[in-house]
Specification:
Number of strands: 18
Number of helices: 13
Radius of gyration: 24 Å
Bound molecules: 6-O-phosphono-beta-D-glucopyranose
Strand content: 15-25%
Shape: globular
Structural class: alpha/beta
Helix content: 25-40%
Length: 509
């Protein structure tokens, strides 16, 4: 695996939750695998007054979130923490960036990072254009003398089509597209990348991967947690903006794309863009019939009382924000003509699972009867993104004994069977790639815009048409009942369980 290229990572929003829970642990994991060069440092930037030392102390606790924490020792932790620095500035004040520039230059000198810098925007989104403009004021955006200057932008990238267009426009007036890295952390997940490898490294799947053999495609991303302490953000966002517009459509792009000519950033991103551009625009009727939104209500699970969404902290008691969204749509191109795609995502569902299910068509002639009394075979290929990462193929097999009864059985692979292999965290992979200038797993501006263009009519309709219902569903259930009716002409959604090979309503969650 490639090592990180020497650079200084400047994290704006360094006293925030993301830095502590994801970024520092991911960088620590890289450090523990000796993937960081000696010429490397992290400069935290935030409003809270802190010294380098107090920042290090604050981050010490976050090291426990690293995946490889078992491989650590107090000496290693100390060595790593010494690479962290901190500068307090008011990120909204252009003048403060002069101090930041001086500090960056001093650190480049001290660490030998050669002027290479990655700015990581982990601030509230409203500050993204502000920080970019202030960096420009101090000419901190220029790539000169062979050094690189890159900008990582956290999600959400805009809140609708207009704001995403405006943000792209501002950023592109300051940085070149190849300097901008828009994070969608789902693309950094090992199993999401494996989607492409499964499809294009095997001769057996791709010939079937089209409208002739696939009946429909299902993508589920469920979470058992509620909004926790993020009610303020979530109430303005909702599941459609929070999960569907970005993570789930990106997965859909990889499932549906044509084989790229080469495995290079632009080659792959050109293909996923074509998928997004081929999404059939949703008509008013589609939005009414084929897009379902729901909100969790209070319930009691295993003796524990769970709050309804409207009772969560920082959520309006009259909120109509969706905590569940499900939709049916089509990709109008040669490969996928007529194949429905179903996507659903929600909070406070029975379990945390993300998976893609490819449902194959029935055999043209039904020779056998199944144990369940039908003669329908339901071949499914399930690509499990998390947890119990792996792949499962469901197919029919003869029940031993007299007659020719058929039973659906499983053929499964679990990543956990690869002993001694470290499954990197998404942020670990993404940060490493950015130091190497590899944007393959980052979303390109045109793709983000195309996804917003597809979702925007739904957001507009929900905003302006109160007749479009928000269905309640008890916390801990699989969402509103009528989302089951979205899938016609086929058995409904798969009810996934924690373990890849289990399914059905009764399983371990
Ligand atoms: C984030 C969303 O982008 O993804 C969260 O804002 C969600 O609401 C999270 O919980 C899910 O990510 P993961 O990696 O835990 O599936």
């Amino acid at each position: 695996m490639r090592k990180a290229v020497s650079c200084l990572i400047v994290i704006f929003g360094a006293s925030g939750d993301l830095t502590e829970r994801k970024l520092i642990p991911a960088i620590y994991d890289l450090f523990l695998q000796c993937m960081l060069p000696p010429e490397f440092g992290v400069l935290g930037v935030g409003r809270s007054p802190m010294t380098d030392e107090s920042f290090r102390q604050k981050m010490e606790g976050s090291l426990s979130h690293a995946k490889l924490v078992a491989n650590t020792s107090p000496e290693k932790a100390k060595e790593f923490l010494a690479k962290l620095y901190y500068t307090a500035i008011d990120t909204t004040l252009a003048d403060d960036y002069a101090n930041l520039k001086t500090r960056c230059n001093e650190l480049h000198e001290e660490l030998g990072t050669n002027g290479n810098v990655i700015y990581y925007l982990a601030t509230p989104p409203i500050l993204y254009p502000v920080v970019a403009q202030n960096l420009q004021t101090q000419e901190m955006n220029h790539e000169t003398d062979g050094k690189f200057v890159r900008l990582i932008v956290e999600k959400p990238f805009g809140t609708n089509l207009d704001t995403a267009l405006a943000l792209n426009k501002t950023l592109l007036s300051i940085f070149n597209e190849n300097q901008i890295y828009r994070i969608d952390h789902y693309l950094g997940k090992e199993t999401v990348q494996n989607l492409v490898v499964t499809r294009f490294s095997n001769g057996i799947f791709e010939p079937l991967w089209n409208r002739n053999y696939i009946h429909h495609v299902e993508i589920t991303s469920s979470e058992s947690i509620g909004v926790e302490n993020r009610g303020g953000y979530y109430d303005k966002s909702g599941a459609m903006r929070d999960m569907v517009q970005n993570h789930l459509l990106q997965i859909c792009g990889l499932v549906a794309m044509e084989p790229p000519g080469t495995f290079e950033a632009d080659s792959i991103r050109n293909e996923t863009l074509k998928v997004f551009q081929s999404l059939r625009p949703l008509s008013d009727e589609d939005i009414e019939k084929n897009v379902i939104r729901g909100q969790y209500t209070a319930s009691k699970i295993r003796g524990e009382c769970l709050l309804g969404y409207r009772d969560e902290p920082s959520v309006s008691p009259e909120s109509r924000t969706e905590t569940f969204a499900a939709m049916k749509f089509y990709i109008d191109n040669w490969r996928w003509g007529g194949v429905p795609f179903y996507i659903r995502s929600g909070k406070r569902l029975p379990t945390r699972v993300t998976e893609v299910v490819i449902h194959f068509k029935q055999t043209p002639h039904k020779l056998f009867s199944y144990l369940d009394g039908t003669s329908d075979n339901h071949n499914q290929l399930i690509i499990r993104i998390q947890p119990d990462e792996g792949i499962l193929l469901k197919y029919g097999m003869k029940v031993p004994g007299a007659g020719y009864n058929v039973q659906t059985v499983n053929m499964d692979f679990h990543y956990s069977e690869l002993s001694g292999v470290h499954l990197p965290e998404a942020y670990e992979r993404l940060l490493l790639d950015c130091t190497n200038g590899d944007a393959t797993l980052y979303a390109r501006g045109d793709a983000v815009e195309a996804c917003w263009k597809f979702i925007n009519p739904v957001l507009e309709a929900w905003k302006h048409n109160p007749e479009l219902k928000v269905y309640g569903y008890p916390a801990g259930s699989w969402g509103p009942e009528n989302s089951d009716e979205l899938i016609d002409d086929a058995p409904g959604w798969r009810y996934p369980c924690k373990n890849l090979a289990d399914d059905g309503l009764y399983c371990e969650l």
